[in-house]
Structure formats: C-alpha cells, structure tokens
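Batch job 17 of 40 flagged for manual review because the log was empty.
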Amino acid sequence: MSVLKEMFRNLLSKPFTILYPKEPVPIPDRFRGRVAIRDEKCIGCSKCSVVCSVQCISMVDSPKEIEFKDKILMRKKKPQLKLFRCIRCGLCERHCPTGAIYLKNELSDSGTDREVVVI
C-alpha cells in the first residue's frame, strides 16, 4: 500500500532533474570554471607558471608597458595557458599579485586538443 502512495505523490510532484538545454544549470558562487587572463594587469612576474602543478602555464614573449602600484613597469613575458591540460586548482589565481589570471564563475569548454591555449 505504501508503494502506491509514493507513486502517486511522485506523479504529482515536480521533477528533481533539470531540463538542461531549456533551463540553465545553477552554478555555485565559488565554482572554479573557465580560466581567463587580463593582459592589461599582467606584470610578467611568472609566479603563475612556477606554482602550476601540472605545468600548463608557460611564459611567452610580450613586451609591454604596464602600470603597477603607481609605477610604469616594462613587462617582458606574459602567461600562456594550455586550456585542456589545466585542472583548475586555483593556485595561479591565488599567487597572482595583480589578479591578472583568474577562474571565472562559468562552465568551461571541453575538448581533446591539448594544444588549445588561453593568451
């Protein structure tokens, strides 16, 4: 008898699943998603590439003048990230002194090409 009660209760209730293409997936506030780099903030200190545990961040040549703490610095290199090798641990974001590299609060793409980069 209790099985019939549960069946009728479930038939009349709202489903627990999300109809994904029609409804957006709720993303938590502290979600570590897509990696992004603000080129105008990067001073080229290479701390992000040093602390990267999977070594997916490399420094590439990119000379540019950057303003940092009321000083003009000449940046020699900037980070280049291999997107699909990244495990999104957040170490690069935590160690970046200017906040140039960060993890967005959105879902990241997927793929099989390990050479796709974020510049």
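Reviewer: the log was empty due to a logging misconfiguration, but the result itself is present. The chain has a mean pLDDT of 88. Unflagging and moving on to job 18.
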